[in-house]
């Protein structure tokens, strides 16, 4: 399928790529935070811009034609390294490290800084939705029914402060190709945003046995 | 209010800051895209990482204590330059340029690249939610009732391809402090994701006259 790449790299090559691209992406996340918050003199800002443009030019000398897609290792596990929530190589992603339990649960402890702001010092309501879509989808996938999001409903109980946060989700029920998942985001004081979602098994997966598998969205 | 800064800069200073920080953030957006897609030799990647870290260090020599918050110009308009969807200074934001009509409409034409991927070559379902939260909220604000998101419901009709997209929303109805807004994202072939949201006028705004004003989330 378009965008699913079976490069089937082995464990050594996987470790090499993780150690190479992970720290680069993390460095760019830090840079993005600094760009929002810097108060250095104008000349320093302009120099930074020129240097960033030069680095980008060098990195683009050889590059993939489009986005990262999903790539499969030799062991069958997938790398969603371009994913906007969990992508190891994606500086837009916080990124979340998501834990999964095959009973149909997923959870993550993570930190959101200045780049995820909506109202002052609060997480953007849409960023909460972004994260919950991923966590609910991972719970559905952990339970054996990966899916594309069909519907997603968010209830905002109060503002979510930027900083250290937790998200979790579990499967509520499965009806044929539809998996219903529920979850929430919380800070140290309790739940801030609740979510429920319906995840629909894609057509290409319906003939396969319903074994636990990774979710790629 | 905490995080709302009345620095009340004039038009010249506003123009200077836009011309300074806008291109820097755009350069970092390009860099983030290159980090996801690069295939240059390992040594070039490592050099890029060191250089990025050095730039970040210099930018951090003087910086705001936390996130950008909302800042007000001399003319009363707000700058949400740290916002995760529309922030001029935020490399995480695409950013969207949102048009508004005081009848209670908001819309935007925008481009999403490799950093916003979920399934291969498709927009992450949560990114669609992120953008629709902003656009629906802006429609509510354009119509005179700014608000924090109360609830948000997304219906995914089909996958949204990465690339050139459109989003729009309008106020469906207002009931006291609650503004109901509806909208969608579309590509050249039509609607991909529909949304409806309830936006609740914050307590601090309830005593003020309900004139059209900007929405800050």
UniProtKB/TrEMBL annotation, chains A, B:
Gene3D superfamilies: Hotdog Thioesterase. This is PaaI family thioesterase. Transmembrane segments: none annotated. It comes from the Bacteria. Residues 123-192 form the Thioesterase domain.
């Amino acid at each position: 399928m378009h965008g699913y790449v079976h490069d089937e790299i082995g464990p050594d090559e996987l470790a090499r790529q993780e150690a190479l691209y992970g720290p680069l992406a993390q460095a760019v996340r830090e840079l993005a935070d600094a760009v929002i918050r810097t108060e250095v003199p104008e000349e320093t800002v302009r120099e930074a811009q020129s240097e960033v443009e030069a680095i980008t030019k060098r990195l683009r000398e050889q590059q993939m034609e489009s986005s990262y897609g999903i790539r499969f290792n030799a062991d069958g596990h997938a790398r969603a390294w371009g994913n906007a929530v969990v992508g190891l190589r994606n500086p837009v992603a916080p990124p979340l490290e998501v834990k999964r339990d095959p009973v149909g649960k997923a959870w993550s402890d993570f930190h959101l800084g200045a780049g995820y702001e909506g109202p002052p010092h609060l997480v953007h309501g849409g960023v909460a939705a972004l994260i919950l879509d991923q966590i609910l989808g991972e719970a559905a996938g952990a339970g054996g029914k990966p899916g594309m999001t069909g519907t997603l409903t968010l209830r905002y109980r109060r503002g979510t402060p930027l900083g250290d946060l937790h998200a979790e989700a579990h499967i509520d029920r499965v009806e044929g190709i539809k998996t219903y998942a529920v979850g929430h985001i919380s800070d140290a004081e309790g739940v801030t945003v609740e979510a429920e979602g319906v995840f629909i098994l894609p057509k290409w997966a319906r003939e396969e046995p319903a074994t636990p598998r990774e979710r790629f969205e």
